[in-house]
């Protein structure tokens, strides 16, 4: 069964909205101005993307931790250790300005995709997991590109 459950797909896509909104406000100055006046500076451009990116990497650490609970013995220990890497990456690597933070978050999300694949390969994640994670990761990375270039 490789079909992504509808609720997981819809919630995953909805979770992309802050990334896409941030990218749109980087690319469209008029939208950024409207967002600044309406929502405040924290909810536009790189601010929303970088903050939300760190939150999502931390959230995904929790998801991986949940997968680790299905493992036993040394595989469980290794899985728990691996599961905290995305949150630690977000904590330590999102400083240094918006461009550096965006590059580090791109690397973090690519690393997360490798961890997703690892947990999936071990049978700890659902059969459909990589279909969802590949799609979401690609869109997240594309959304960070305006901050990098």
TrEMBL record:
The keyword Transmembrane applies. The keyword Kinase does not apply. Keywords: Membrane, Transmembrane, Transmembrane helix. The chain crosses the membrane at residues 46-68, 132-148. This is DUF3429 domain-containing protein. It comes from Yoonia rosea.
């Amino acid at each position: 069964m490789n079909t992504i459950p509808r609720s997981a797909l819809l919630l995953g896509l909805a979770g992309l909205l802050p990334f896409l909104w941030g990218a749109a406000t980087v690319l469209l100055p008029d939208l950024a101005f409207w967002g600044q006046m309406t929502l405040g500076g924290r909810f536009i451009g790189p601010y929303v993307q970088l903050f939300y990116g760190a939150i999502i990497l931390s959230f995904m650490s929790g998801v991986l931790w949940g997968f680790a609970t299905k493992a036993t013995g040394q595989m469980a220990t290794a899985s728990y250790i691996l599961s905290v890497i995305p949150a630690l990456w977000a904590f330590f690597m999102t400083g240094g300005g918006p461009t550096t933070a965006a590059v580090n978050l791109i690397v973090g999300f690519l690393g997360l995709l490798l961890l997703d694949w690892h947990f999936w390969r071990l049978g700890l994640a659902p059969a459909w997991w990589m279909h969802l994670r590949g799609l979401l990761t690609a869109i997240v990375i594309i959304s960070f590109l305006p901050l990098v270039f």
